[in-house]
Design goal:
Blueprint lengths: L1 E6 L5 H13 L2 E6 L9 E3 L4 E7 L7 H6 L3 E3 L2 E9 L7 H10 L3 E10 L15 H17 L3 H4 L35 H5 L23 H5 L10 H13 L7 E4 L2
Parallel strand pairs: 1-2, 1-4, 3-5, 4-6, 6-7
Antiparallel strand pairs: 7-8
Helix pairs in contact: 1-4
Length: 259
Protein backbone atom coordinates (compact mmCIF):
# COMPACT_ATOMS: atom_id res chain seq x y z
CA UNK A 1 0.00 0.00 0.00
CA UNK A 2 1.25 3.46 -0.94
CA UNK A 3 0.22 6.72 0.72
CA UNK A 4 -0.60 9.75 -1.43
CA UNK A 5 0.17 12.70 0.83
CA UNK A 6 -1.64 15.78 -0.52
CA UNK A 7 -1.45 19.10 1.34
CA UNK A 8 -1.55 22.88 1.02
CA UNK A 9 0.72 24.62 3.50
CA UNK A 10 1.46 28.32 3.10
CA UNK A 11 3.38 28.82 6.35
CA UNK A 12 4.58 25.27 6.92
CA UNK A 13 2.33 24.15 9.78
CA UNK A 14 -0.15 22.11 7.73
CA UNK A 15 2.77 20.31 6.14
CA UNK A 16 4.24 19.66 9.58
CA UNK A 17 0.96 18.04 10.63
CA UNK A 18 0.70 16.05 7.40
CA UNK A 19 4.26 14.76 7.72
CA UNK A 20 3.74 13.75 11.35
CA UNK A 21 0.63 11.74 10.47
CA UNK A 22 2.20 10.26 7.33
CA UNK A 23 5.24 9.11 9.26
CA UNK A 24 3.03 7.33 11.78
CA UNK A 25 1.21 5.43 9.04
CA UNK A 26 4.43 3.60 8.13
CA UNK A 27 3.70 3.50 4.41
CA UNK A 28 5.70 4.30 1.34
CA UNK A 29 4.52 7.77 0.42
CA UNK A 30 4.44 10.25 -2.40
CA UNK A 31 4.06 13.95 -1.57
CA UNK A 32 1.96 16.48 -3.48
CA UNK A 33 2.46 20.10 -2.40
CA UNK A 34 -0.43 22.18 -3.70
CA UNK A 35 1.18 25.47 -2.66
CA UNK A 36 3.95 25.18 -5.23
CA UNK A 37 1.90 23.49 -7.96
CA UNK A 38 0.60 26.04 -10.47
CA UNK A 39 -1.66 23.40 -11.97
CA UNK A 40 -1.91 20.24 -9.86
CA UNK A 41 -1.47 17.01 -11.75
CA UNK A 42 -4.27 14.51 -11.87
CA UNK A 43 -3.82 11.95 -9.10
CA UNK A 44 -5.48 8.55 -9.46
CA UNK A 45 -5.34 6.50 -6.27
CA UNK A 46 -6.34 2.84 -6.45
CA UNK A 47 -8.38 1.00 -3.83
CA UNK A 48 -5.20 -0.75 -2.73
CA UNK A 49 -3.56 2.55 -1.75
CA UNK A 50 -4.58 5.42 0.56
CA UNK A 51 -4.92 9.20 0.51
CA UNK A 52 -3.91 11.63 3.27
CA UNK A 53 -5.57 14.98 2.56
CA UNK A 54 -4.38 17.84 4.81
CA UNK A 55 -5.70 21.37 4.41
CA UNK A 56 -5.70 24.66 6.35
CA UNK A 57 -8.99 26.19 7.47
CA UNK A 58 -9.87 29.71 6.31
CA UNK A 59 -13.12 31.08 7.75
CA UNK A 60 -14.43 27.61 8.55
CA UNK A 61 -13.66 26.04 5.16
CA UNK A 62 -10.64 24.95 3.18
CA UNK A 63 -9.25 27.50 0.69
CA UNK A 64 -11.42 27.83 -2.41
CA UNK A 65 -8.33 27.16 -4.49
CA UNK A 66 -7.92 23.75 -2.81
CA UNK A 67 -11.60 22.89 -3.05
CA UNK A 68 -11.38 23.45 -6.80
CA UNK A 69 -8.19 21.42 -7.09
CA UNK A 70 -9.87 18.44 -5.44
CA UNK A 71 -11.30 17.70 -8.88
CA UNK A 72 -7.79 16.50 -9.82
CA UNK A 73 -8.06 13.65 -7.30
CA UNK A 74 -9.59 10.37 -8.40
CA UNK A 75 -10.25 7.39 -6.18
CA UNK A 76 -11.78 3.95 -6.65
CA UNK A 77 -13.40 3.21 -3.29
CA UNK A 78 -10.04 4.39 -1.96
CA UNK A 79 -9.58 4.91 1.79
CA UNK A 80 -8.89 8.53 2.74
CA UNK A 81 -7.72 10.23 5.91
CA UNK A 82 -8.42 13.95 6.28
CA UNK A 83 -6.72 16.54 8.50
CA UNK A 84 -8.02 20.08 8.91
CA UNK A 85 -5.52 22.49 10.45
CA UNK A 86 -6.94 25.63 12.02
CA UNK A 87 -5.79 28.63 14.04
CA UNK A 88 -7.66 28.20 17.32
CA UNK A 89 -11.00 29.83 16.40
CA UNK A 90 -12.86 26.78 15.03
CA UNK A 91 -12.77 24.46 12.07
CA UNK A 92 -16.56 24.78 11.61
CA UNK A 93 -17.58 22.76 8.52
CA UNK A 94 -14.13 22.14 7.05
CA UNK A 95 -14.08 18.42 7.81
CA UNK A 96 -17.53 17.89 6.31
CA UNK A 97 -16.51 19.85 3.24
CA UNK A 98 -13.33 17.80 2.80
CA UNK A 99 -15.28 14.57 3.19
CA UNK A 100 -17.87 15.62 0.63
CA UNK A 101 -15.23 16.74 -1.87
CA UNK A 102 -13.31 13.48 -1.62
CA UNK A 103 -16.31 11.18 -1.64
CA UNK A 104 -17.56 12.88 -4.79
CA UNK A 105 -14.23 11.87 -6.34
CA UNK A 106 -14.42 8.19 -5.40
CA UNK A 107 -12.76 8.15 -1.97
CA UNK A 108 -14.07 6.74 1.29
CA UNK A 109 -13.14 8.75 4.39
CA UNK A 110 -12.22 6.44 7.26
CA UNK A 111 -10.71 8.92 9.72
CA UNK A 112 -10.55 12.67 10.27
CA UNK A 113 -8.78 15.06 12.58
CA UNK A 114 -8.96 18.77 13.38
CA UNK A 115 -5.56 19.97 14.57
CA UNK A 116 -4.25 23.28 15.88
CA UNK A 117 -1.57 25.54 14.41
CA UNK A 118 -0.44 29.13 14.70
CA UNK A 119 -3.02 31.42 13.11
CA UNK A 120 -1.90 32.57 9.67
CA UNK A 121 -3.14 36.17 10.02
CA UNK A 122 -2.93 36.71 13.78
CA UNK A 123 0.19 34.67 14.70
CA UNK A 124 0.00 35.36 18.44
CA UNK A 125 -3.10 33.13 18.44
CA UNK A 126 -2.07 29.49 18.94
CA UNK A 127 1.55 30.61 18.82
CA UNK A 128 3.97 27.70 18.88
CA UNK A 129 1.41 25.15 17.80
CA UNK A 130 1.37 22.40 16.91
CA UNK A 131 3.15 21.75 20.19
CA UNK A 132 4.39 18.47 21.64
CA UNK A 133 0.93 17.57 22.93
CA UNK A 134 -0.51 18.14 19.47
CA UNK A 135 2.15 16.00 17.83
CA UNK A 136 1.47 13.22 20.34
CA UNK A 137 -2.23 13.28 19.39
CA UNK A 138 -1.28 13.14 15.71
CA UNK A 139 0.95 10.13 16.29
CA UNK A 140 -1.86 8.39 18.17
CA UNK A 141 -4.25 9.31 15.35
CA UNK A 142 -1.86 7.85 12.79
CA UNK A 143 -1.54 4.63 14.78
CA UNK A 144 -5.30 4.14 14.82
CA UNK A 145 -5.51 4.96 11.12
CA UNK A 146 -2.82 2.41 10.36
CA UNK A 147 -4.97 -0.27 11.98
CA UNK A 148 -8.11 0.92 10.21
CA UNK A 149 -6.45 0.67 6.82
CA UNK A 150 -6.05 -3.07 7.45
CA UNK A 151 -9.76 -3.52 8.23
CA UNK A 152 -11.22 -3.10 4.77
CA UNK A 153 -14.34 -5.14 5.50
CA UNK A 154 -15.19 -2.72 8.30
CA UNK A 155 -14.78 0.61 6.56
CA UNK A 156 -16.19 -0.43 3.20
CA UNK A 157 -19.63 -0.81 4.83
CA UNK A 158 -19.57 2.12 7.28
CA UNK A 159 -19.80 5.91 7.16
CA UNK A 160 -17.88 8.30 9.37
CA UNK A 161 -19.79 10.82 11.50
CA UNK A 162 -18.23 14.29 11.63
CA UNK A 163 -18.91 17.51 13.49
CA UNK A 164 -20.44 20.39 11.52
CA UNK A 165 -23.57 21.54 9.72
CA UNK A 166 -24.47 19.21 6.82
CA UNK A 167 -26.32 22.10 5.15
CA UNK A 168 -23.18 24.25 4.99
CA UNK A 169 -22.53 26.67 2.14
CA UNK A 170 -18.80 27.13 1.55
CA UNK A 171 -19.45 30.15 -0.67
CA UNK A 172 -20.43 32.27 2.33
CA UNK A 173 -16.79 32.87 3.20
CA UNK A 174 -15.55 35.70 0.99
CA UNK A 175 -12.11 36.06 2.53
CA UNK A 176 -10.75 38.66 4.95
CA UNK A 177 -10.05 42.37 4.36
CA UNK A 178 -6.40 42.04 5.38
CA UNK A 179 -3.61 41.38 2.89
CA UNK A 180 0.15 41.41 3.48
CA UNK A 181 2.30 44.01 1.76
CA UNK A 182 6.00 44.83 1.65
CA UNK A 183 7.77 47.77 3.26
CA UNK A 184 10.99 49.69 2.64
CA UNK A 185 13.05 46.61 3.54
CA UNK A 186 11.90 44.89 0.34
CA UNK A 187 14.86 44.26 -1.98
CA UNK A 188 12.74 43.05 -4.89
CA UNK A 189 14.20 39.53 -4.77
CA UNK A 190 10.92 38.09 -6.09
CA UNK A 191 10.63 35.14 -3.73
CA UNK A 192 7.17 36.26 -2.69
CA UNK A 193 6.17 36.47 -6.35
CA UNK A 194 7.29 32.90 -6.94
CA UNK A 195 5.54 31.41 -3.90
CA UNK A 196 2.17 33.18 -4.17
CA UNK A 197 -0.36 30.48 -5.18
CA UNK A 198 -2.80 32.95 -6.76
CA UNK A 199 -0.34 35.33 -8.48
CA UNK A 200 -1.37 38.29 -6.35
CA UNK A 201 2.13 39.86 -6.36
CA UNK A 202 3.56 41.45 -9.50
CA UNK A 203 7.26 41.02 -10.25
CA UNK A 204 7.63 44.67 -11.24
CA UNK A 205 6.23 45.90 -7.87
CA UNK A 206 6.53 43.18 -5.22
CA UNK A 207 5.77 45.52 -2.32
CA UNK A 208 2.13 45.66 -3.40
CA UNK A 209 -0.51 42.94 -3.25
CA UNK A 210 -3.56 42.53 -5.47
CA UNK A 211 -6.28 42.37 -2.82
CA UNK A 212 -8.79 40.96 -5.30
CA UNK A 213 -6.59 37.89 -5.83
CA UNK A 214 -4.91 37.47 -2.42
CA UNK A 215 -6.27 34.70 -0.17
CA UNK A 216 -4.27 35.89 2.88
CA UNK A 217 -2.44 32.59 3.20
CA UNK A 218 0.79 34.20 4.43
CA UNK A 219 3.14 32.27 2.17
CA UNK A 220 4.81 35.51 1.08
CA UNK A 221 5.45 36.47 4.72
CA UNK A 222 7.01 33.10 5.45
CA UNK A 223 9.38 33.18 2.46
CA UNK A 224 10.55 36.82 2.65
CA UNK A 225 14.27 36.84 3.63
CA UNK A 226 14.11 40.51 4.72
CA UNK A 227 10.95 40.19 6.86
CA UNK A 228 9.56 42.97 4.69
CA UNK A 229 6.07 41.55 4.17
CA UNK A 230 3.37 41.56 6.84
CA UNK A 231 -0.16 42.66 7.69
CA UNK A 232 -0.36 46.35 8.59
CA UNK A 233 -2.76 49.23 9.26
CA UNK A 234 -5.01 50.45 12.04
CA UNK A 235 -7.93 48.25 11.02
CA UNK A 236 -5.69 45.17 11.17
CA UNK A 237 -4.26 46.10 14.56
CA UNK A 238 -7.73 46.65 15.98
CA UNK A 239 -9.01 43.34 14.62
CA UNK A 240 -5.91 41.54 15.90
CA UNK A 241 -6.48 42.76 19.45
CA UNK A 242 -10.07 41.60 19.48
CA UNK A 243 -9.28 38.26 17.85
CA UNK A 244 -6.45 37.53 20.27
CA UNK A 245 -8.75 38.15 23.23
CA UNK A 246 -11.58 36.08 21.78
CA UNK A 247 -9.41 33.10 20.82
CA UNK A 248 -7.01 32.96 23.75
CA UNK A 249 -8.31 29.69 25.25
CA UNK A 250 -6.27 26.55 24.60
CA UNK A 251 -8.16 24.24 22.25
CA UNK A 252 -7.47 20.55 21.91
CA UNK A 253 -7.38 18.48 18.70
CA UNK A 254 -10.44 16.42 17.78
CA UNK A 255 -10.36 13.09 16.00
CA UNK A 256 -13.03 10.95 14.35
CA UNK A 257 -13.00 7.37 13.08
CA UNK A 258 -15.30 5.18 11.05
CA UNK A 259 -17.26 2.76 13.26
Amino acid sequence: MRLYNVYFSAKGTTRLCADCIAEGLNLEKKDYDWLTASEPEKIAVSSEDALLFSMPVYGGYIPKLCAERAAALHGDHTPAIIAAVYGNRHYDNALLQMKDLLESQGFHVIAAGAFLAEHSIFPAVAEGRPDEKDLAVMREFAGKCEKLLKEKDLWMEKEIALSGNPDYDASVFKGVPFHPEGDKNCTGCGKCVQVCPVKAIARENPQKTDAARCISCGACIKVCPEKARDYRGEAYLTARKGFEEKCAAYRKPETFYIK
